[in-house]
Amino acid sequence: MKNKKNNKLNRINQLLELPRDISENEPKITIIGFDQMLIENYKGILEYEEFYIKISTNIGTININGFNLSLDQVTEDDISIKGIIENIDIERIEYEE
C-alpha cells in the first residue's frame, strides 16, 4: 500500500516538475569553500561541539568535522554552519521493503 501511494506521489511530482529536494523532503547540501555550509530540509541537531556537528535528515545523518564550527543561522527548514570545515561524512539510512 505504501508503494502505491509513493508511486502516485512520484507521478504527480513528475507532472508538476517539482524538484526532488522539495517533493520528497530530501536534504540539499550547499558547500561554499571550506568555511561555510547550508543544509536544507534537515530534521534536527543531534550533536553540537566546536569541532563536530551531527545533523539528522530524512535520509540519514550528516557529520561535519572541523575547527571553530558554529551554527550561524538556524530555521525550521535550514541550517547554516560556519567555521573551518575539514571533513563531511554522510551516513545513509537503509530502508527495508
Structural features, described:
There is one protein chain. This protein is of the alpha+beta class and 97 residues long. The protein has a domain at 26-92: Immunoglobulin-like, CATH 2.60.40.2000. The chain is 20% helix and 55% strand. The protein has a six-stranded antiparallel sheet with strand order 1-2-6-5-4-3, with no helix packed on it. Strand 4 and strand 5 form a beta hairpin. The termini are close together. The mean pLDDT is 83.
Name some characteristics of this structure.
globular; 97 residues; six-stranded antiparallel sheet; 2 helices; Immunoglobulin-like; single chain; alpha+beta
What is the beta-strand fraction?
over 45%
By CATH reckoning, the class of the domain at 26-92 would read: Mainly Beta
Arrangement of strands in the largest sheet = 1-2-6-5-4-3
Termini gap: 11 Å
Q: Give the total of beta strands.
A: 6
- What CATH architecture of the domain at 26-92 do you see? Sandwich
Please tell me the overall pLDDT.
83
User: Ranges with pLDDT <50 over ≥5 residues?
Assistant: none
Number of helices: 2
